[in-house]
Design a protein that fits this description.
Cytochrome P450; oxidoreductase; 3-stranded antiparallel sheet; binds protoporphyrin IX containing FE; alpha+beta; 52% helix; Cytochrome p450
Length: 501
């Protein structure tokens, strides 16, 4: 179904492109732009965006024509970067200039819309919301305050897997991880009642739906300007249909928070957001839609990314038994078999950290990092005009054979040496983005993935009913996802890590 949909959209756009020639002035002949690969008439390099894996078609183009390229979709200019040294130069000299994620595809959409945090321009609203989430949820002190919330959910995760193991039932690891992550995010932001009503399952359904709409959302961002000139809002109906349903769910949850139904756990984020909505806080007054959009984006940007990473990391461990064995030895020697791994154990589990980093290097959820140049500037001696979109191909950079030995192989050891720490600093490793718009949830992300992998490795063996996990990438998803479910059966490995069981 999806491919028919895309083919027909592509044909439609090709036809439209011939009409466009009458509507558009030729792009201004700016000299000294970065080099550009051969392009098609009118549509420029648009065809690259219709491939199943945009990051791979960009990777191919960059390896042939260079790490700093100028592309054009109709007359929308894009600079494609796939080298750490160019990213470093942008980060060092132009971070402020590229501190917005760029155009919005659908203003009213709950995710990536104009009420949200992710697409908000770098300015007062973004700073206000960032302060709220760092102070109340994602900063080091908030993470410490809310550690108990996560511990309860991790224990629930373990009990659920144990139950499945006892009944010899299989589980889909990504789904289990997503339920864990969304219940933690929901409880951290909205209180314990969030999980009691099984909201994590409902939220997970929406994040999966948005993940599958993501390429359309991305295309809408890029094509909105040219297509709106002829009265077309790309993919609007489909995107908004999902958006309205997600909004309804969030509205119901917010009403319960207002009625203080979820009283037990002081959900600081929600309290602060509601105070700003009521105008109790003179600093900034926010709208109800802005609250919903922030929550939706925290689930989408935090839950989907973290559970996707957990799934990739488990798949790599199952396919690399020696790595799994070494990780288990580390966990057994540091923690033993009489208690369940806790997040306070993570800093000393260096090999576990290396496994997660290596998994993020090979399978970064955010394969492409989009930004926009607010002003014209010079990079590497080339001129980049104001309003040019910037796309950093993090996937290509983290698999670049010139920067990473055996770049396509899963070798967590590479993150144990000092050499790799230097590399990280040189921005060769950027699964969480870079600069002032880098991911504010990276610490929580490491905790969510680390504890989930830790529990699954410490307490269970995993039967996949075959030899190897198929590592094929899904196409047209928001975050780099696995094409096939990771279904396996847990087999209990240690007997009772929870004293109360
Ligand atoms: C393994 C887990 C995660 C990965 C790989 C990841 C990755 C990313 C990436 C690549 C970006 C874009 C950065 C850029 O443009 O330079 C981002 C942004 C963001 N992430 Fe994460 N993330 C993860 C977990 C989380 C968590 C747990 C949260 C919070 C609950 C979160 C919240 C956000 C937010 C709000 C933004 C937008 C930041 C802004 O626009 O200023 N992420 N993340």
């Amino acid at each position: 179904m999806a491919s028919v949909d895309y083919q027909s959209s592509f044909i439609l756009i090709l036809i439209l492109s011939f009409l466009f020639v009458y509507y558009f002035k030729k792009p201004k002949n700016v000299s000294n732009l970065p080099p550009s690969p051969p392009s098609l008439p009118f549509i420029g390099h648009l065809h690259l965006l219709f491939s199943c894996s945009i990051h791979k078609s960009f990777q191919k183009v960059s390896s042939k024509y260079g790490p700093l390229l100028h592309l054009r979709n109709f007359n929308v200019p894009v600079v494609l970067v796939s080298s750490a040294s160019v990213v470093y130069e942008i980060f060092k000299d132009h971070d402020m200039n590229v501190s917005s994620h760029g155009a919005i595809g659908n203003d009213d959409c709950i995710v990536f819309g104009s009420s949200g945090f992710i697409q908000a321009p770098y300015g007062d609203y973004w700073k206000f919301m960032k302060k709220i989430i760092i102070t109340n949820m994602l900063g080091p002190q908030a993470l410490e305050r809310l550690r108990g919330v996560r511990a309860v959910e991790v224990e629930r995760f373990y009990r659920n897997l144990l139950d499945k193991a006892m009944n010899k039932q299989s589980v889909e690891i990504g789904e289990e991880a997503m339920r864990l992550d969304n219940s933690i995010l929901g409880t951290m932001s909205m209180g314990r009642g969030f999980s009691k009503e099984n909201n994590e399952a409902k939220v997970s359904k929406f994040t999966v739906e948005f993940a599958s709409l993501a390429q359309k959302i991305f295309l809408a961002q890029i094509l909105r300007k040219p297509l709106e000139k002829i009265g077309i809002s790309p993919f609007k109906k489909e995107i908004m249909d999902a958006s309205y349903r997600f909004e309804e769910l969030l509205e119901r949850i917010i009403v319960k928070c207002e009625e203080r139904v979820y009283e037990d756990q002081g959900p600081e984020v929600m309290e602060t957001l509601l105070a700003a909505y009521r105008g109790d806080n003179a600093e900034y007054k926010i709208t109800r839609n802005q609250i919903k959009a922030l929550l939706a984006e925290l689930f989408f940007g935090g839950g989907d990314t973290s559970s996707t990473t957990t799934r990739w990391a488990m798949a790599e461990l199952i396919n690399n038994p020696k790595v799994l064995e070494r990780l288990r030895e580390e966990i057994d020697s540091m923690i033993g078999e009489t208690r369940l791994i806790q997040e306070t154990d993570l800093p000393k589990l260096l090999y576990l950290q290396a496994v997660i980093k290596e998994s993020l290097r090979l399978h970064p959820p955010g394969v492409l990092l989009p930004r926009e140049f607010e002003h014209g500037c010079n990079i590497r001696g080339f001129y980049i005009p104001k309003g040019t979109k910037l796309v950093i191909n993090a996937y290509a950079m983290m698999r670049n054979p010139n920067s990473w030995k055996d770049s396509d192989e899963f070798k967590p050891e590479r993150f144990l040496g000092k050499e790799e720490e230097k590399r990280e600093k040189l921005l060769n490793f950027l699964p969480f983005g870079f600069g002032r718009r880098a991911c504010p949830g990276s610490n929580l992300g490491y905790i969510l993935v680390g504890t989930a992998i830790g529990v699954m490795v410490q307490c269970f063996d995993w039967d996949i009913g075959g030899e190897k996990v198929n590592m094929e990438e899904a196409s047209r998803r928001a975050f780099l996802a696995m094409a096939h479910p990771l279904k396996c059966t847990p087999l209990p490995r240690i007997l009772n890590p929870l004293p109360s069981l």
